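Q: How would the C-alpha cells look for this protein?
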Amino acid sequence: MTDAVTICECFARDGLQHEPGFVPTDTKISLLESFAAAGFRRVEATSYSHPRWVPAFADASEVLAGITHRPGVAFKATCPNPRAVRRALEDLDRGTGAEELSLLVSASESHTQRNLRSTREEQWQRVAEMTELAGGRFRLVGVVSVAFGCPFEGHVDPGRVAEDVARFVELGADAVTLGDTTGVATPGSVAALFRRLERAHPGLPVVAHFHNTRGTGIANAVAALEAGCRHFDSALGGVGGHPSQIGYGAGLTGNVCTEDLVGLFDAMGVETGLDLDALAAASRTCEEALGRPLHSMVARAGFDRFPAPAATTAA
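A: Here is the predicted structure in C-alpha cell form.
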C-alpha cells in the first residue's frame, strides 16, 4: 500500500489531562518543539478548559506564547465553551494564538452532562456561538466524543453520530473527529461509520481518534485506513484519557500509541511524513517528562525495519 496520512500528536493535551501531577510549562513547550521537529504537521498543544476543572492546562496561554509558530505546523487548542474561544482570540490578538480550535460535543446525553456539564442541545447552542465568535480566524475541528459507545448509556446509534457530523459541517467546521472515548469500537463498526460519512460528506477530513483501552486501537486504525480515513490522532507513549479527577473508564484509558501507529504505517508503506529518529527521541523525552516508562511497544523494540531479502543466484 502506498498512501499518505496526517497524524496529529496529542500527548500535550489529551495525554497530559490524565496525569495527576502538573507538568511544568517549560517542559510542555520543549515537548511541543520536539513534536514539530519530528515532522508533525498538526499538534494538539493545550486546552482552554477552566483550571478548576482541568488544572493541567492552567498555563494554556503561556504554553502557546512559548512555542515557535511556524509555517506548515498547526497547533491546536481545545475549547469547551464560548469563554474558551474568547481566551483563544485574546491570545491570537497578541500574536501567540493557536492555529486550530477543537469544539466538543458528546454523542450521548449522559456523557455530555458528565463531561461538559450541560445538555446536548445546550452544548450545540454553545458550539454555534463558538463558531460565530471564532469569526473564521482559526481552522475549526468538531469533535464527537463517545462516537462508538458511551460508558453510561452503552450503545450509541451511528445515525446520531452522523447527524452530529452533519451539524458540524453546517456550522462550517473544517474537519470532524470521531472519538472512541473509552475504547469500545471494533474494526467492523469503525469501517461502517467511516464509509457512511465518506458517502455523506465526500472530501471532509474525518479524523480517527481511538483509545486503546481494550487493546483494539491499532486494529481500529487500520480499519479506518482501509475505509478511506487519512487523518488520525494518537499520543506518544499511549498516554491520556479523561481528566484525572473524572471517574469513568477503567484500565489503560490512553490513546493509540503514536510510535506503534507510525511503525505499523511505515511497515505498510503508508507515508506519515515523520522522521523516525526524531520521533524516537521525542518518545524518550516524553518518558523523561513523566518519569516512567510508557506503553509503546515500538519504543521498546525500535523502529527497525525487516531487512530486504538477499538476492539469490540460480544454482
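Residues 311-315 have pLDDT under 50 and may be disordered.

The chain is about 40% helix and 15% strand.

Upvote if useful.
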